[in-house]
Specification:
With about 60 residues, the protein is mainly α. The protein has one domain. The chain is built from four helices and no strands. The longest helix has 12 residues.
Length: about 60
């Protein structure tokens, strides 16, 4: 549903791109352009790996 709402908002606001990723993913993506070495180290942590595995499993019950 979030994707659909984002698409409608993008059309209404005449935007050519939308980003519907979760907030932590958007933050890391932006930070990687500024400090790629730091992000590479951070994404190797156990917490980051566990989060990535959770995302790979797909939508949870709340979607």
């Amino acid at each position: 549903m979030a994707v659909g709402l984002a698409v409608v908002a993008a059309i209404e606001r005449d935007r050519s791109e939308i980003d519907v990723a979760d907030l932590p993913v958007r933050i890391v993506a932006r930070l990687s352009g500024i400090a790629p070495g730091l992000v590479a180290r951070l994404t190797q942590s156990e917490d980051a790996v566990a989060y990535a595995e959770q995302l790979a499993e797909g939508p949870g019950q709340d979607r």
